[in-house]
């Protein structure tokens, strides 16, 4: 169980007011202050400073808040596992590229290898999945975007090319460099997605920006996005694995751009110190083995 003083600290971080924090905890303001002073004395650091009428975290306070959230997450995972008894439910998330491109192949093999587990899967972008992982809403996540490797246990399970895509019947198939693609309407994932982060990073490396394109259309739903590209309404940049079905059916074509030769790993990510660490390691290996069959074969 999380120490009550740490619980008070996390709520005060959220409220930024001892008055509001005391009301929510049904404590007096001096009791809230005593909890914080006890933590500062125990750790030998100052956790808050006054900024006008609100409280702001010091750098040491920010670090403690990060560690406390992780501790609260692990505490919840332990409690959930104890309540479940013999029946085990694992909640995981996959980014949309992975969910559409790999999970139809990977998830059946997970179910076959771990019949004792009930899997609950959600789809979200990289940033949201990592936030849900930190908050204890997920046991692990399958992501393709950038993340802080120091904060998580992770295992690369698949490598996919990051490519430009167009309709095989469009004039865009003749593009040979990234700057050529500025002539086409750009259809792209929303901000916060791993795909968007990777593409914007490549643009910056070539002194370009998404605003340089003749038009920009943002679509969260990958099948809809790829359908627009297949219909010749523009181009997109995505992981080859996410479009493998349409590529196999020759409804999409890779634009072979000389200055976009990029491969990126997909990662199985979980919090360090999980009470299910051995099981999660076995799951990561199974995901990797299942994903090996997800190659793109053009007819």
Q: Could you characterize what this model shows?
A:
- The chain has 299 residues and is an alpha/beta fold.
- It folds into two domains: 4-80, Winged helix-like DNA-binding domain superfamily/Winged helix DNA-binding domain (Arc Repressor Mutant, subunit A, Orthogonal Bundle); 87-299, D-Maltodextrin-Binding Protein, domain 2, CATH 3.40.190.290.
- It is 43% helix and 21% strand.
- Strands 3, 4, 5, 6, 9, 10 and 11 form a seven-stranded mixed beta sheet that branches. The chain has a two-stranded antiparallel sheet with strand order 1-2.
- The longest helix has 26 residues, at 59-84.
- The protein starts with a helix and ends in an 8-residue tail after the last helix.
Summarize the structure.
43% of the residues lie in helices and 21% in strands.
Summary tags:
299 residues, alpha/beta, D-Maltodextrin-Binding Protein, domain 2, 2 domains, seven-stranded mixed sheet, two-stranded antiparallel sheet, 43% helix
Distance between the termini: 57 Å
Instruction: Kindly report the oligomeric state of this protein.
Output: single chain
Q: What structural class do the secondary elements suggest?
A: alpha/beta
User: What do we call the CATH topology of the largest domain?
Assistant: D-Maltodextrin-Binding Protein, domain 2
Point out poorly predicted stretches: none
Largest sheet descriptor: 7 strands, mixed
Listing every helix as H and every strand as E from the N terminus to the C terminus, the arrangement reads: HHHEEHEHHEHEEEHEHEHEEH
Number of strands: 11
